[in-house]
Amino acid sequence: MTIWSRIFEAISALIQGESLSSVFERLRNPPEACPERTVAFTIAVIALGAKMAKADGEVTRNEVSAFREVFHVPPEEEANAARVFNLARQDVAGYDVYAQKIRAMFNDDSNVLTDVLEGLFHVSVSDGAYHPREDAFLAEVARIFGISDRCFRAVRARYVPDAPRDPYDILGLPHTATIEEARSAWKAAVRENHPDRLIARGVPDEAVELAQRRLIAVNAAWEEIEAREAA
Question: pTM of the predicted model, to two decimals?
């Protein structure tokens, strides 16, 4: 049985009017890798992405396409995924419900939570604009995920053209960091975003582009700090 078959098995009660949030109550299982956990996570991410796309008051075709680029959906399952996406947009539960579910399932892996946040940023700017309501939405999701303000600003700077860019934020450093500390942080970030490491973490191929964007930002941050030190 495919994951999408399990998803539709899990949400069959939606036809009778049950909300997606109540479905999660039946998927409470130990956090180890079990099919139910995977199903719950997939539903939560789709729901969060759908509500993210709706944050500025309108869901565009570009936003839906961007969601599919980041959160891989096999071609043969696109119709099923679209149905879940539409159900998620209509569900009365707030986006905080889904963000909290994702945090609970991956509280021990901040990389997964950051990956989800980056994917949502990718969706948010796909229509060529970044709305204040989208910014508020993503800031609250980051807070629920336990992602620091510095990390949030660094991710936003990579996706939003006019957002302030602080090289120290991007490397996760205080402004008092030495050049040696900056160099170490830069090297660690480059290693962390290496394709081989991402594959080992189970990151889908479609998400590698996000890592490439991170690498570009990390290298630019180091170059800026190094240039300031040499000046």
Answer: 0.72
